[in-house]
Amino acid sequence: QVHVTESGGGLVQTGGSLRLSCAASGDTFSNLAAGWYRQAPGKRPELVASITYGGLRDYADSVLGRFTISRDNAKNSVYLQMYNLKPEDTAVYYCVVGAQLATLDYGSWGQGTQVTVSS
Asked: Is the dihedral of CA 106, 110, 112, 113 positive or negative?
């Protein structure tokens, strides 16, 4: 079982940047896949970025070129660097860690961190 904790959310103006951090504990993090989901009010969670245990990255079209996911296995951590933020990026962002990307929905979820982008 993996315990996941996010941090780094906040309020930022359109065009601004934020860096989200995710700390994982409890299992061998380096063998796990990870991703960042977001959920806006009234919408279903959306996977915006993922990274395999080997470091392969993938992004949703809506954030491609603006968001960068990375991991530091020595620190059991995953990061989401967000640039050129837009009001439509406003959501609760969740870090998820799991055995593989295909089943990441069923992995360990953090409590979420709010990102609000003002226009």
From this structure: negative
Q: What is the pLDDT of residue 101?
A: 86
Q: Which tokens hold the place of 18?
A: 């934020």
Q: Which residue do the tokens 């969670």 mark?
A: 45
Which of 35, 38, 26 lies closest to 76, judged by CA? 26
Kindly report, residue by residue over 99-112, the tens digit of the pLDDT.
Answer: 988 889 999 999 99
Helices (H), the chain: none
- Residue 93 bridge partners (DSSP): 38, 113
Contacts of the segment 70-78: beta carbons below 8 A, 24+ positions apart: 71/34, 73/29, 73/30, 75/23, 76/23, 76/24, 76/25, 76/29, 77/21, 77/22, 77/23, 77/24, 78/21, 78/22, 78/24, 78/34, 78/36, 78/51
